[in-house]
Structures are given as structure tokens and as C-alpha cells.
Design goal:
Layout (H helix, E strand, L loop, with lengths): L2 H7 L2 H17 L3 H6 L1 E10 L6 E5 H16 L2 E5 L7 E5 L2 E11 L3 E10 L10 E11 L14 H4 L7 H10 L7 E4 L3 H12 L4 E4 L7 H4 L31 H14 L3 E3 L3 E8 L4 E7 L5 E6 L1 E4 L22 E4 L13 E5 L3 H13 L3 E6 L4 E4 H8 L9 H9 L3 H18 L1 H9 L12 H7 L5 E4 L2 H6 L4 E4 L3 E5 L2 E4 L4 E3 L2 E4 L6 H9 L1 H7 L23 E3 L4 H19 L20
Helix pairs in contact: 7-19, 11-13, 12-19, 13-15, 17-18
């Protein structure tokens, strides 16, 4: 057989099937040596719950071999097969490498797993590719599979009129919790809380969501008037109920708020609005939470639940209010960006915005287009600036390639931290080239920019919890053209009654000061509800830990029965499944104690 014959037969599906057979044999025979040999020298294995009951990454054949050997007998992985209903294998380029991307399924002792692989396409050895990236993830727990598709409820109890109560009456009774306490209480009805509640419901878990606002969706509805999502609709679908194909690419916040309210109704989620958590304490003996709730009608409810989920957003919701010299002497109105609603309230007035992140630019632009007499924006530190199109779009481009969104989610979950760094360095370099003219004009106007820590751009600033970036939707041109006046904090002296006095003696007039200065971290949200001891026990939230995993998010924390849920819609959609699976496993006694984890000795990657 000639080289041309091998090339003609080495289609992506054939190459993948051949590799999968070898991978399946190694898995079923518990042959760690054979498994390690399938990986390239710079290959990675990322596992989410299926082998390790953790979110773990292993780098290089030796560490991958050792990790598999430690977990294989307990996991009992078997029946590796081409994934049913997922995208077909295909040859693509990622980070300059030719790879075959493909999906597979497998079984374990507790359920079924989903897998994704990137195989290096080697022209010299087409039928024996090495693994660059491999993901194995727990997908379902046996006996608690999601009630979707062929497993959807029949509705016979309603159609055949076997009981006097109709669906609405049953829902009202279920939502009232008059006869029970929920095993899971979720604090916060933003996208994270709702999506997690939907996942749990489909796995048969009774969960109550409590929300301080009067309506589901108010977390978006009450933000500033012109807020619109800065990533495209293709990345933002909710599980089980994707957005309509008629919706715009960039979703306005009020459309999203209405969608969330409808989502809670359509997915039959149990939500109590106008409900505040007054206190929470963990009973170490009973291993459950004692929660005190205050309802909108003034009544209180004491509950006991096994699991408590804080879904109050990455920022925890508490505004940061820096101490600015002289601000107490200012005679006008001071608002945090969270309180700012619309520039229409400030027509003909003078405004100063503190901060040059997304919120600062958006508020300043809203004030300008609404007819403020003058708008100034104060830059307190260098800002990472990217264009909306193509800059920000590049970061989410994989969601626009035509693959089902949950397939793309698995693909993104497979990317280990070192590859993520290199990917965003490449993306940042490319966006900087696209945005060179814009950045040069900003610099000429006196605006300071940077490319993020280690040149990884705005996405890593977000993932590390650093903030300080702006996706340009038009405010840059207003600053460049001096329609919005740029001020540097280093040139300012202090606030006075009539505005901001500069070091040169001039005063920038102001009737309004908006503090677009960010929010406290989620750890502070935990502290507010559960106290210092628990907040200090779990430690910082968001950003990466020593294992390059997001700190405390979507997985077990150092506090028994406490889970944290947050992130953008795409992150909530992906990681809600794994968090729901851990909670379901814990309720069924399937989740190992920390001391009995499959990889308690923690072989780790050399990174």
C-alpha cells in the first residue's frame, strides 16, 4: 500500500476509530502503560469527576500513566465508544497545529462519561496519532439521568385525569414548600442559580432558589439602561431551552431579564422572590444547614437543607467604593455604577465617571448620547482595550463554527491552563494587530492601555478576577474625539463641592459622579451571609489555584455542604452539569469522602 493510498483512507473518522479502539483496550484492561503511550510528550489529560471526582489536569505520559493507574480499578471505566448524537470527527487547525477533534462516550461504575480528544495529525504516521488534549467527564449518574428527549415525562397523570389536581395546582403546592424543606437551597436567581436549578431538577433533585429582588431577571433588568451582552448569542444559550433564532447577535439586558423569568417558569423551577437570607449556620452533627429566610410579606421561614449553593455572581454583588480625596465635600450626587440607571436622568448636567472598565465606558457613553452637558472619564490605571468586532469575537469564534453548543462546551472544558495561556497570547496578539489603529489613536489621546498579565488579554483578566478591560462598543471614538473628556487620576487633586479639582488648579464641573469601580469578590458575599469563619475557611473565590483550577467554583469547597455557582452564561451552562452531578452524588452517598478520593496522593502535572 502506497503513501497516497494511506492518505486516502486516513479520513478523520477512520483515524479516530482506530485510535479509540486502542484507547478503549487500554481503559478496559487497566493498562496504564499502554494508555500513557497514546499521548504526545506535551499531551494533557483533563478529568472532571469521572475518574478523580475532582477537576484535575495531568501533563505528560508519565503523570497521565500514574494518575490512571491510581484511579482505574475504582472507576471501572469500560465500553468506550463513539459518542452518540455528537459532532462527527473532523480535521482542523488549533493554535497552529493540525488536529483531529472527536467525541466519545464511556461507562463507569456510577454512570456514563463524555469524552473529547484532539489527536495530532502526523503526515508521517497518519494511522497512529498521539493525543494532544483529552477530556473525560462524568455526564450522568445511573438512575438519575436527565429527563429529556426520549426520557421526557409522559404527562399521563394529566392527560388521563387520574387525580383531581391539575398541573398548575401541583406546581403551586410544590413551590410553596409548606410540607417540606428542600435538600438544596440556592441563593440567587441570576443565570447561574437558574441554570443550576434546571440541571438539578432534571436529575431529580428538589431545589429551591431564593432571590432578594421582586422578579426573576431583576439582576439584569435593574442594571444601567443601555447594557448589552458583549459576547455573541451563539455562546450564551441556556441548557434545555436555547434562544430563538430571531434574536439579535448581541442581547440587550432587558431581553435577557425577560428570558430568565420565562426560563424559570418553563423549566418548572421553584423560586421565591423578595426573599432574603437573614442567617445561615452549619450543623456539624446533623451535617446540614440551618437557614433563616425573610419573605417579602414580612414572614420568616426556618429551613434545614443538606446543601447550600451561593449563586450570587462572581463579584458577590457588593459594590466597591474607594476612598477618593474630598468626595465627602462634593455637593452633587454620587452613584455606584450598580445604582446608575440611565443618562436620560442627567440631560444638560455635568458628569464624571471614575473607572475605565466596561461599566465605566458604557455609563460615560450612555450619558453622552443621552445629552449630558459634559462627560469626563477618569482613568485610574492602564486598561486592556479590544474592539467588539473582530477583537472580542475572536475569543468566542469556536462557538460560531456550526457545532452544537454543548459539544463546543466539552471542547473548551478540555483546554488545560498552559494551553489556555498560549491560546490567549495568540488571540491577544491577533486582536492587537486588528486594533492597532484604534490603540494608536487612544494613546495619542492620552489613554493608557495594556495587554493583560503576560500578554494574555481581557479573557485572562476576567478569569483571574483582575478586571480592568473594555470591549469597545463606541466609547473609544468619543474619547479620541474629545467628546468625552479623558482625565488621568494622577493629574487630579481632590473633589470639591462643584466637581473635581485638578493639580493644575482647574476644576472639572460635575453634578454627578459615577463610581464604576467594580465589586467585592464572592468570598465577601459568603462572609455577609455566613460569617467570617466560613468565609475564611473557603478562602478566595475565582482566579486560579495552585492546580490551575478556578478557586472554589463549581466544585467542593472547604466547607461541607457549601457550593459556589457563578460565571458568564457559557460557564454556567457548562459547569452547572458537574456541580449538579456532585450534589446528586452526595445525596445518594456516591461522592467519596475527601480522604478517600481516587487520587488522594494527587499526582500532578509538571507545568
Amino acid at each position: 500500500m502506497g503513501i497516497s493510498d494511506i492518505k486516502s483512507m486516513a479520513t478523520p473518522d477512520v483515524v479516530f476509530a482506530s485510535w479509540l479502539a486502542r484507547f478503549g483496550d487500554a481503559i478496559e484492561q487497566r493498562d496504564s502503560s499502554a494508555l500513557g503511550q497514546l499521548f504526545a510528550g506535551d499531551g494533557f489529560w483533563r478529568d472532571i469527576l469521572s475518574f478523580t471526582w475532582e477537576h484535575r489536569t495531568f501533563a505528560g505520559p508519565d503523570h497521565i500513566r500514574d494518575a490512571f493507574e491510581a484511579a482505574a480499578d475504582r472507576v471501572e471505566a469500560r465500553n468506550v465508544r463513539i459518542a452518540a448524537g455528537r459532532s462527527a470527527p473532523r480535521l482542523v487547525k488549533r493554535s497552529g497545529r493540525a488536529v483531529i477533534e472527536a467525541y466519545f462516550d464511556f461507562d463507569t461504575a456510577v454512570g456514563t462519561g463524555a469524552g473529547f480528544v484532539r489527536l495530532l495529525h502526523n503526515e508521517a504516521d497518519l494511522l497512529n496519532p498521539k493525543v494532544w488534549l483529552l477530556l473525560t467527564a462524568l455526564h450522568e449518574i445511573r438512575g438519575f439521568e436527565e429527563k429529556t428527549g426520549d426520557r421526557r415525562p409522559t404527562g399521563d397523570e394529566f392527560s388521563q385525569i387520574v387525580a383531581p389536581e391539575n398541573w398548575q395546582q401541583i406546581r403551586e403546592k410544590e413551590r410553596s414548600y409548606a410540607d417540606r424543606d428542600p435538600p438544596v437551597l440556592i441563593i440567587g436567581a441570576g443565570q447561574g442559580g437558574l441554570i443550576l436549578a434546571a440541571r438539578l431538577r432534571q436529575m431529580g433533585v428538589d431545589a429551591l432558589v431564593v432571590e432578594t429582588s421582586a422578579r426573576v431577571g431583576d439582576v439584569w433588568r435593574h442594571r444601567y439602561n443601555n447594557l448589552t451582552l458583549h459576547n455573541e448569542i451563539v455562546a450564551n444559550h441556556f441548557p434545555y431551552l436555547p434562544f430563538p433564532t430571531t434574536w439579535p447577535v448581541w442581547i440587550p439586558k432587558d431581553m435577557l431579564a425577560g428570558w430568565m423569568e420565562a426560563y424559570a417558569e418553563f423549566l418548572e423551577l421553584n423560586v421565591w422572590t423578595s426573599t432574603e437570607v437573614q442567617s445561615g449556620k452549619f450543623d456539624d452533627v446533623a451535617k446540614e444547614w440551618m437557614i433563616s429566610l425573610k419573605r417579602g410579606d414580612g414572614s420568616t421561614r426556618e429551613m434545614r437543607c443538606k446543601h447550600l449553593v451561593m449563586a450570587t455572581g462572581v463579584s458577590g454583588g457588593a459594590p466597591k467604593r474607594p476612598r477618593l480625596p474630598g468626595l465627602e465635600d462634593f455637593g452633587g450626587v454620587v452613584l455606584h455604577s450598580r445604582q446608575f440607571k440611565t443618562g436620560l436622568d442627567w440631560i444638560g448636567k455635568h458628569a464624571i465617571v471614575i473607572g475605565t472598565g466596561n461599566s465605566g465606558h458604557d455609563v460615560a457613553q450612555d450619558l453622552y448620547v443621552s445629552g449630558a452637558a459634559s462627560v469626563s472619564i477618569v482613568q485610574r490605571g492602564a486598561t486592556c482595550v479590544v474592539s467588539l468586532d473582530p477583537g472580542a469575537r475572536i475569543s468566542y469564534a469556536v462557538y460560531g463554527e456550526g457545532w452544537p453548543v454543548e459539544d463546543v462546551d466539552l471542547m473548551t472544558a478540555a483546554i488545560p491552563y498552559p494551553v489556555l495561556l498560549e491560546t490567549y497570547k495568540w488571540v491577544t496578539k491577533r486582536t492587537r494587530e486588528h486594533d492597532r489603529e484604534l490603540l494608536d489613536k487612544l494613546h495619542a489621546a492620552g489613554f493608557n492601555t495594556h495587554d493583560g498579565e503576560d500578554d494574555t488579554g481581557f479573557q485572562l483578566l476576567y478569569l483571574r478576577g483582575a478586571g480592568g478591560y473594555y470591549i469597545d462598543v463606541g466609547c473609544c471614538d468619543l474619547i479620541i474625539d474629545n467628546k468625552i473628556k479623558l482625565l488621568q487620576d494622577s493629574d487630579s487633586d481632590r473633589f470639591v463641592a462643584t466637581g473635581l479639582r485638578m493639580k493644575d488648579g482647574s476644576t472639572i464641573p460635575a453634578d454627578l459622579v459615577v463610581l464604576a469601580t467594580g465589586f467585592e469578590g464572592m468570598q465577601e458575599g459568603v462572609r455577609k451571609v455566613l460569617g467570617d469563619e466560613i468565609a475564611n475557611r473557603i478562602g478566595p473565590v475565582w482566579g486560579f489555584d495552585k492546580d490551575n483550577v478556578m478557586r472554589n467554583m463549581w466544585r467542593r469547597t472547604a466547607q461541607d455542604g457549601l457550593w459556589l455557582m457563578g460565571g458568564a452564561i457559557n460557564e454556567a451552562r457548562l459547569y452547572s452539569r458537574f456541580l449538579a452531578l456532585e450534589i446528586r452524588a452526595a445525596l445518594e452517598g456516591l461522592l467519596p469522602d475527601r480522604s478517600a478520593m481516587p487520587l488522594v496522593k494527587r499526582p500532578g502535572p509538571k507545568q
